[in-house]
Fold:
Amino acid sequence: MKKIASIFICTMIICFFKTSGIAQSSINEWDSASKRILGADISFLPQLEAQGKKFYDKGIQKDAIQILKDHGFNYIRLRIFNDPAADSGYSPGQGFCDLEHTKQMAKRIKAADLKFLLDFHYSDTWADPGKQYKPEAWKNLNFTELTLALHDFTKQVITELKQQGTVPEMVQIGNEINHGILWSSGSNEHFDRLAVLVKAGISAVKEVGSSIKIMIHIALGGQNEESKTFIDNMLARNVQFDIIGESYYPKWHGTIDDLKDNLTDLAARYKQGIIVAEYSEHKKEVNDIAFNLANQKINGTFIWEPLNTWETVFDKNGNANSFIELYSEISKMYNVH
Structure:
């Protein structure tokens, strides 16, 4: 009897996430102010500040968020983990990038009159193509329970952000998910199950904010065939989303021409907007490619952790360097507001 009930519940979940009108894309409802994105993931900022780090622009100390805004950035990306304070989590004992830290950062982003992309990792620690570990609290759940847990966690986060007036304009259902999420239940060896999990997250977001844009984020910036394979598998399973996000790091994703060829093809092939969701090197070239894609409802980029990682826009003493001026030029060139 329990087995029959479990099968029934699972079937109902799958049917709901396939047919729910809540989860339908709002791709034709773009806010004109959101069409061009010059974004930065600065999730490390609270940790840096806790270490005493300060930031300066032309010798004047300011909030790093304000400095980015002063130089043309209009969007901030934040990652969120389930229980980063766990012993095996991202931030043992401290919990950076948990819901409470995310809510605090969201208030700062909105106070600066910037827009906000939230990146769900669905893990207690880093999730990327090389690892997509389940949160400790979800490890022993069956697939039906796992699907509901993902939905409920997503809805709780978006609901609490909305309650404090900081609902994100855009949400990622997973981080660099071309190899799946919540291994092994949602690996890319099981696209049907992966699609159910992604739909659960999308539905949860749309239940709270129907206008929130949904990004599917993959780490295949220069890999066109692999990008198409993943996107086609999602679309074949009626996963409704607004934006294709690609990570681009030359070490893993090829040359700048590989990025251009891939994004150009994706822009011509799919109705979704195209965003470079992570990058660091080749700043001008990456932005030139992203902002010059044809027939796009949305264009743009998110540089990854420019405060302290790889090609930073601040030196070791927190002073804005020449890269920050490049973003002033990019924002003017592409009319970013």
